[in-house]
Design a protein that fits this description.
Number of strands: 8
CATH architecture: 3-Layer(aba) Sandwich
Number of domains: 1
CATH topology: Rossmann fold
Structural class: alpha/beta
Radius of gyration: 17 Å
Number of helices: 10
Strand content: 15-25%
CATH superfamily: Alpha/Beta hydrolase fold, catalytic domain
Oligomer: single chain
Distance between the termini: 24 Å
């Protein structure tokens, strides 16, 4: 499907936004991996939604990292992005870091989120539960095995090769630097977020890979308990990144969560 790779001005800062499809507006907030490329997952969603994929500051073609020191700075930046795009109340879908950001947005700017979908979110304090794996302390190969259910699969190696190109390596280093601005200390969480989840008003679906080794599925149950009325869906063949590992299955769950008409997206592959 055709898409547009745009640069918009957000309070004087250039921001890269991928856009494609038609229908109700859907904003996808990416992970620390910086997946600012038009993925098969986006193609599937674009059959029913106008998909907007903004790059966070410091990722891909977006600038303004010097303005970001916390997840809350990133929330305000994201509100400015929505304003610049003319999106009053889109659906919001996030993965990992992006899911944390999406949840914070729904807490602090709850009138701006129509429906909320969280994939394998970090962001909650672990409170004695399984710790989040430290992405800053592992090799690229180790990270691939944390992120994907099968770290040796063709998909895993395509997205995280053993020998990335110099350009890909530079993008990965930029992504780590940008992630560190919001997730270094405290690591990958907001100490007060759990106490604020009651503020989420948007109908929420939590989607989790059962083989997630970065953020254990136990965290999914804590999100589910914290967001009143939320639905929890687990995907047995997936790790931390279902939109990469099983895009058809992930897109179908999102479509149902957002109320898309039946029968538009092909059934998940067996």
């Amino acid at each position: 499907m055709d898409y547009r790779d745009n640069r918009i001005d957000v309070q004087g800062v250039p921001v890269q936004v991928l856009q494609g499809g038609s229908g109700p507006d859907l904003v996808y907030l990416h992970s620390a991996g910086g997946e600012v490329a038009w993925l098969p997952f986006f193609d599937l969603l674009a059959r029913d939604f106008t998909v907007h994929v903004p790059a966070h500051p410091g990722f891909a073609g977006s600038e303004g990292l010097e303005r970001i020191d916390s997840i809350h700075d990133l929330v305000f930046h994201t509100v400015d992005v929505l304003d610049a795009l003319g999106l009053e109340r889109p659906h919001v879908v996030g993965l990992s870091l992006g899911a944390w950001l999406a949840a914070e947005l729904a807490v602090h700017q709850r009138e701006r989120v129509a429906r909320l979908v969280l994939f394998d979110a970090v962001g909650l304090p672990t409170d004695g539960g399984p710790p989040y794996a430290d992405i800053f302390a592992v090799s690229p190969a180790q990270l691939r095995h944390l992120v994907f259910a099968d770290g040796e699969s063709e998909v895993a190696r395509a997205y995280m090769p053993d020998e990335p190109t110099p350009e890909a390596l530079m993008e990965a280093l930029k992504a780590m630097q940008a992630t560190a601005r919001v997730a270094w200390d405290p690591y990958a969480h907001d100490p007060k977020l759990g106490d604020r989840l009651y503020r989420v008003q948007a109908p929420t679906t939590i989607i989790w890979g059962e083989q997630d080794r970065l953020a254990d599925v136990a965290h999914a149950r804590r999100w589910n308990a914290g967001i009143q009325g939320s639905q929890l869906v687990t995907l047995g063949r997936c790790g931390h990144v279902p939109p990469f590992e099983s895009p058809e299955e992930a897109a179908e769950v999102v479509r149902k969560a957002l109320g898309a008409p039946e029968g538009t997206t092909p059934a998940p592959a067996s």
